[in-house]
Amino acid sequence: MYVTVSESENNEPNAVLWKNGEKQKLSNVYSSGSSVFVSGNDVYVAGAESDRNGSAALWKNGVKQILSQDS
To answer: Are 6 and 13 in contact (CB under 8 A)?
Structure first.
């Protein structure tokens, strides 16, 4: 089972992924995870991170990618 949440650390929420009862911290800055998608062996978490002006973020297997607002 996979769940993404924001957990408070030092009064600042950080995106976290829980997988089968094990916690994986996704970010060290103000952030949130909002959805989880699993495809094969890959786990994707969509959310946002505020160190980039609240930019959308995507974590694939725990590796963050900031999604640009530029097209």
So the answer is: yes
- CA-nearest of 37, 31, 2 to 17 is 2
With 0-12 / 13-18 / 19 or more C-beta atoms within 10 angstroms meaning exposed / middle / buried, residue 27 is buried
Per-domain residue ranges for the chain? 2-66
- For residue 15, the one-letter residue type is A
Q: What is the Cα–Cα distance from 32 to 13, expressed in whole angstroms?
A: 7
CB atoms within 10 A of CB 54: 13
Print pLDDT tens along the chain (71 aa).
Answer: 999 988 887 788 999 999 999 999 999 888 999 999 999 999 999 999 886 567 899 999 999 998 876 65
